[in-house]
Amino acid sequence: MGSVVRCVLVAVAAVAVLFAGGAAGGPLSTKFYDSRCPNVQSIVRAGMAQAVAAEPRMGASILRMFFHDCFVNGCDASILLDDTANFTGEKNAGPNANSVRGYEVIDAIKTQVEASCNATVSCADILALAARDAVNLLGGPTWTVQLGRRDALTASQSAANSNLPGPGSSLATLITMFANKGLSPRDMTALSGAHTLGQARCVTFRGRIYNDSNIDSAFAALRQQTCPQSGGDATLAPIDVQTPDKFDNAYYLDLMQKQGLFHSDQELFNGGSQDVLVRKYGGNPAMFAADFAKAMVKMGALVPPASTPTEVRLSCGKIN
């Protein structure tokens, strides 16, 4: 992995320059906390190392949380805000309620960061670092995270319900939804490789294993054993049938064998525009690692407009 990581860091350095601006509190920077909170990255990594050691699946959960945060009004930690009697956040939006988890991990890391440097590091930056470390701790690449995000004072459940692609999405829908965020089809295909980690609930892939024709019959039968046509909605299955707790390129090999768990996954390799890239990633793990890292930097630069009211929250679940 050493040579892959070196290549990734070189490639990402160029991307970081292009996507270093736009945060509501000013431009993002690799050196944002160097003087104000020099230990923040080691604190976050230690917290993620503990979480992943206790449950490898948590790495996938934190990565998913970051994706779901960034696709709704930018990477502003809006997904972390709790509902109150007078406020409806994003946690209970359809795409989040039963698939995003690990809030307690970010809360625990935030507590440690606050103890080291009070009222300095945003929850949005902690989540960005935690997602990077989740990937790396499970065998994937690393990259330099641009920092300086600030935390939203509000959230949008309606945007969470409409801005996030679902497991039944078509290729055209996927391309459009990512393009709406300034992400190319190549970025979309690389970021979809995050599904090399984690598990999914039966209800999210039932239609795929019973109704789709572009699915390996043995794979469909395997998944049907624990996901009946009715009932068992919450039963889990690995998204990547080969190495669900390791960040690698096996996801693309799955697609090439018609073993994508979600309909949206298999859309990337179904006689369409992304077939060639899926084959490349399946045969070249270093290319996938580099493209994934670059796409994560681009996605991480999705921040609210400069005019958006923000703050550095003292607690990730509520505004100050």
UniProtKB/TrEMBL annotation:
Heme b binds at residue 195. One of its GO terms (biological process) is response to oxidative stress. Keywords: Calcium, Disulfide bond, Glycoprotein, Heme, Hydrogen peroxide, Iron, Metal-binding, Oxidoreductase, Peroxidase, Signal. Disulfide bonds join 37-117, 70-75, 123-316, 202-227. Ca(2+) 1 binds at residues 69, 72, 74, 76, 78, 90. Its cofactor is heme b; Ca(2+). GO terms for molecular function: heme binding; lactoperoxidase activity; metal ion binding. It is an enzyme of class 1 (oxidoreductase). Residues 1-25 form the signal peptide. The record marks 64 as: Transition state stabilizer. This is Peroxidase 1. The lineage of its organism: Eukaryota, Viridiplantae, Streptophyta, Embryophyta, Tracheophyta.
